[in-house]
Structures are given as C-alpha cells and as structure tokens.
Amino acid sequence: MSISVIKSTVSALSDKNGKSIVKSQYVGSVLVPMDYTPGVACVTWFKNLKDLVALYMDNVEKAYKTDPFYLSKVEITDYIEVPDAWYSFKGLVPGKWILRGTISQSNKKYPKRSRNFQSPANCLIAIALQYLTPMKDWGSEMVDEVLDKGDQLYNESLDYLEEKSIFEVKMLMLNEVNTVFKFPTQEAVFVIDECLVNGSLKGEKDLLNLENGLEMFFKDNDRGIVAVRNISVAVWRHEGVYYYFDSHSRDEKGLTVGYGTACVLRAILISDLATAIEVNLKAGSENTFNIHRVNVEFYDSGSGVVRPPLNHYKAITDDSAILRSLFSEKSTKYDLNCGKQTIPMCLTAMAFNKLKPSKDWDQKDIDEILNKGDKLYTLTMNRIQEQEEQEALAAELEALYRPKMDGMEEDGEERKTSSGTSANQKPSASSAGTKPSMAQSEAASEAPPPDLPTSFEDEEQEATDGVLKLEQMSNELILGLNKFVFEFEDVYVDSVEEGASGDNIRDNLKPVLKAFYEQEQTEDYFNQEIILESKPLAVAIWRDDKRFYVFDPMPRDKDGTVIGKEDWSEIEEKPPSVASEELEEVTEDETKPIEDEANPFEEHVEDIMDADPGAGGDQLGDQKPFVEGLVADIQFPEEQEEGKEDEGIKYIKPLRKSSSFWREQEKAGRGCVVLFTKLEDMVEHVYGKIPPKVGQEESFKLKSAKLTNVILLKDKLRSEEERTDVYAGDWYFFQELEHGKWIMRGTMTIWHPLFPENNRGKQTLAMCISALLIYRIFTIVCFNDTTVDSILTYGDKLHTFMKKTRKKELMSMVDKKLKEDEIDWFVFRMFNRHSLILLIMCSEQLNNVMSK
C-alpha cells in the first residue's frame, strides 16, 4: 500500500486556519515577542494541490524558503492489529490475549526434587483458583501463586506415594496426584474423569485432531487438562471465552523459550487455543493426546474442621445436619407393616447410597428409600412364610412315612415301659395319670403375671411382633437394574443372654463404634457401612471422605432425636432400703455404736414395708411409695450429736405425660438421615437414642455390610430361532427401546445454555407447536438428532417472539395506563405458567381480563 502526501499536511502548532503561529518578529534588528493565541496540532485536507503548496509555503519561515526539499514515498507492507488490553491481559492479535507471571515451574526457587515436574499439579491448582478468583482479577502474582501451590501439591503427592511404597518416577500421572488440597479457608476436592476425549495431533486414521477434540470436549464440559508428550496444560471456558494455562517457560507471545515465564492465554476461538498448544509441543513421534475432565468441590475449613456444603440438608449445629422424609416407617400408609420394616429400610438406604451419594440426597430420595424398604419387608415376609409352610409340610410327610422306630414291636404294637409310657415318649403329668400337688397349684396361682409396660419406652420394647432381624434378611437386594449382594461380618456381638449381667449397650457401644470408625478407609470398603441392631434401636451407619451418616426410619423430631425422650426414666439411685442392707455388711466394730441406739433408718424401712403395696406406683412395687413421693428425714447418730439439721434425700415423683400423648406426637415424626463431621458427635447421637433405664442394659450387635453391585442387563439381541417381524430392530434414525417402541434423542434440552435464561424451562408448549410444524414440512423418516435440536431452537424463538408480541400489544393499550414494569410482570406471569392460550385471545377478551 502506498500513500502520497499531496492532499494533506500535518502541522505541529497551527491556528484555526492551519497556519503556523508567529511567536516573535524582527523589528529592525530587534526580535520582538508577539502576542498570540496558543495553537494545536491539526490535519488539513485540500481539493486542489496548489492550495496545499500555498499553505505549506506560508508555514515555512522566510529564511528557509530557498533550502532544498525532498519528497519520499512511504510504502506499508505489513499491518498487524493489536487489540486493547483486557484487564491485566495484554493483547497479542485480535481475539487473543496473554497474562505472564514472573517465573516458571523450572525456577530455581523450587527444590530439585520437584523442579520442572509439577505440570499436572499446577493444572489442578489453576482450575481450582479460577473458581475462587474471577479471571478479570488475575494478575502476574496469581500466575506465580499457581506455581507455588502446585509445587506444594506435587510434594504432598510425592510424600504419599513414597509412604505407600508405590512411587515410580518423578513425572507423575494425573491419577497419582492427590485429589485434595487445602487452601487457607477452604479445602478443594478434585473430581477427575480420565481420558474423556482422545485422538491424534495429525488426525490420522479417522482419529480426532486436537481442535476437533477440544470442540467435542467443550460441548458438555467446561474444565479439563490436555496431556500430550509429557506436557500437561489446563484449559477451561468462562463466559464463552477459552483459557489455557501453561506452567512451562514461555516468551511474551506464549511461545517456547529457554528462560521465560508461565502464562495464561485467553482466546475467543477454539482454533487459536489448539494452535497455541500445538506450537509449544516438543519434538517427538508420539502424537496421541488425552483430555481429562476436572471438576472441583470446595468445603469450608476455616475453623479447622472441613464442612462440605449441606445441599438439601438442614443444619442442626455447626457440625451436624438433618434431611427428613415426609413420613416414617410407622406411617399408616404401610398398613400392617407399620413399624416393623426398620432393617429392610436400613439395607435399602445403604444400597441407595451406592447409586446416589447420600450427600446429594433430597427429601424425595428418602421417601423412595422408605417405600422400597417396605416392599422389601413384604417380599421377605412372604419368603419366610413360604419356607415355614414348606417345612411344616415336610414335617407332616416325615411323620407319615417315617420308618418304625426301635421302640415298636414286630406286630406293630408299641412296647410299653414299666411306667406305662412308650419308650420314645417323654413322661408328663397327664400321661402319668397323676394330678398336680396342692403346693404346685398354689405356686402356680401365686405366680406373678407377666410384666406390663408402664411407660412409653417400655411399650416400645414390647412391640416386637413381626419385626425382622438381620439374619432373616436375604443377602440380595434389587433396585431397578441393580442387584446388590451383601456380605455381612460381625464387628461386635454380645454373648450375654437376655436377663444376664455383663456386656451391654451402656458399657460397650461407644468404644466399639469409635474403634470401628477410627480404622483407615480402604478402597474396597470406603463407606464402612454397618448395621446396629438391638432391642431398643436399629439404625444404619456409614461414612464418606468427610462425614458420618446415621439413617433412622423411625419417627423422629426435627433434630433427629426420639419423640418423648424428655419423659425417659433416668437410672435410679439406690434407695435407702438398699443402703440398709449394705450397712449390715459392715463389721461389728463399725456398727456397734449404731446398734446400741435406736436406728431411725430401720424404723422408716419397717413403715414402708408395712405400707399397702397398691397405695401408689406400678414399676417398683412395694418400694415405689418410698422412692417417689416420700420425703425421708434420716439422721444418723453422728449427725444428731453434731447438731446437724439435714432434711435427707427427697424422692419426688416426676410429672410424666401419658403414653397415648406421645403416640399422638409420634404421628408428626419423620424418618431421617443425620450427618456429622465429628465421630464423637455421631456416637453420642446414636447412644442418646437409647432409653437409659430400659434400653442401655440390653445387648446389641454390630455387623459390617460390604455391598457389590451387579448390573442386570436386558437381553436386546434376539436369538436366530426367534421370529422377527417388521417391528424388530431400529427404524431409520429411531433406536429400538423394546419391541414396538423406538426413540430418537437430540443433543440438548429446554434448559440448554444456548437459550435465554428467562426462557429456560418455559418453552414446552412453544416447542410442541414447533414440532407439529416441522412434522408437516418434513417426512418423519428424515428426522434425526439435528431435527430434534431444531425443534427446540425454533420453539424457543417462537416463545421469545410471542413474549415480545404480547408486550407490544399491552403497551399499545393506552387506556389501561399500564407501566412498563407492570407489563413485564404480566408477561412474565403469563409465560411462567407455560400457557400460550392467552396469546391467541382477541383484544376484546384481553381487555376484559385486564379490567378484572
């Protein structure tokens, strides 16, 4: 390109006419300064060449007008446009910016152990920091921070590998880098999906090249790591712009150089991103590349305790939260099964945790768990009933066809013993022809009746009919197409029989639970699922990498505690009657002063023993009037001599609500999952659900449960012997789901980011109209996935068009005097209800609606 300066001139300081300003002038031989108005630089253009020459000559001082002049031709051969800087990013070419640090990963500040090997760790840190800090706030110090924290993560990973004796080479694979990194106030957990996209740099043999691979990756993902030829770089997308972090030595244009710095490249096009990666690769014959997806979860750890997000859980304390169902296992919807399905529901919850992590559960998930657990209970009871019927039938058949025993005579008569009974028959009172003695009859008549429940927690202990135990359950559970196989192993089992003294919940539950969960998690038993089974309580317990979970299907309050807990009986102190028995065991020397004088303690005991047993109380019999309601004024001789006035111990009967009251309150209780960040809190919560009086003396069992998921696949392939017809197999672009049913899927939904945010999820009817229109234009056999996407796209456009049309019509109604914000609200309400019926209403009908 050539430019001839023949029609324009540029002056340094000129007046409004483009002429040079005269600052001084000679008057005779004296140079006199002139008054002048300051001028400015200007550009003047002319239609005629002579005007340009005239102005130029006027601006040349008289002394220089005879000097020679030169005309030079200027030719511009190359012109590169440089974009404006974007915050701290410097423009390179249009659509491309760069941000450089001050060092690279090969800087000598890093130890030889890690120097120039940290690229995978640096990529993870870069992706994490882009979550925490907006890209517009990034500067050179942020790039250096990525390198420092990446070196820290690399060394932590190296220490772990050496500790486990699995370290091989310094250049770590991505799966060898630690997936947890602690920032000052947060903890980042990296979720990596390896080799999501792979291909060849040259794209040979029908493989994806790097540009196509990145395009495929960014269709459904936003953050990842590209690994090729021992180089790892981080790529991500933010607000439609692509970023590329390279921790290696790069120059001011982002190209490889001996002594450069790490950099972040910002690009509008994927092609520029792919080119920037390819030009920096070292020479080599390995052309394959892999793109790994990386997501980051952040947990609050400012107080020293890692607290993951609660999601759908509701906080109880700083270290616990609860997720409640709409009902419990005692809901009337379960009819006869009500209150008996605890173990089946616990097993269902543990299996469901394998399909969907419990940290992501919502209320609908717990409802589904309870319903599935109830179905499992019904199936198990049917199976048990069938087994009992088969065993009964087998016993009857065995009794009919059993061979004659040794106690039978050859002629078929039973040999009698000398006492008149058969040899194989146990003697009884009736068969011996004797009647019970008078003493036996009196003992039987005086035998106390069975204990009746007298409080709410006692009734809970009695209602055990039909409740399934863990040993009665099958080891297999099917949820949809998933068959879970359980392997149970005893963690702790009380060997004490009922009623005996020894190991119990009070003594052993806490230490056993703590010891079990203090064990290190392993890959094959990461969740450490266990079932706690006892008479007062049965719950499922498991954990993840951060928290502990307790699943309880029984009706509980908003904090997950037992309803009616405030009326529980505490462990009673020894009454004075027991103390008197202990006094008798004291030696004679110690008791002699007391024997010489009247013992007021014994007088009280005699008064109480003579009292009417039915005068009050129902749990402690004769001692109840003393324990609850009586004020015992007891003074020993020593106290009387010293003149002490002690009113003694008062045993006041607590005020309790009736069991029917708590039964009514239980109807509002719900099943729940309670999570804890501390092991001690979880143990105390479980222990606190057991009544101290009637429950903590019971034995308990802890069993670990290892789950294996076996996927149940449908047999879609038809055997050659089976007759096929026109309805078998795929139909054009429709894929067969089952016989007589086909489906065609698109690549987007109504929530796709392509659609305006205000439209997402509200275009259903508009898309249905779009589908009918496209069906009328194109035959169904030509439909493919692009057609489905087109239906969604045109439906969204129709939705937007109708919104604008409706707004325009409303704004034209001057008589209604509607403000713009009122019109926007009306249109929003109209289209937010997925209704397009109002769009075809005539203006007269609309006026009626507006007037109302």
TrEMBL record:
Residues 407-464, 570-592 are annotated as: Disordered. Residues 418-434 have a biased composition (Polar residues). It comes from the Eukaryota. Gene3D superfamilies: 3.90.70.120. Residues 436-446 have a biased composition (Low complexity). Residues 407-417 have a biased composition (Basic and acidic residues). InterPro entries: Papain-like_cys_pep_sf (IPR038765). This is Uncharacterized protein. It comes from Callosobruchus maculatus (Southern cowpea weevil).
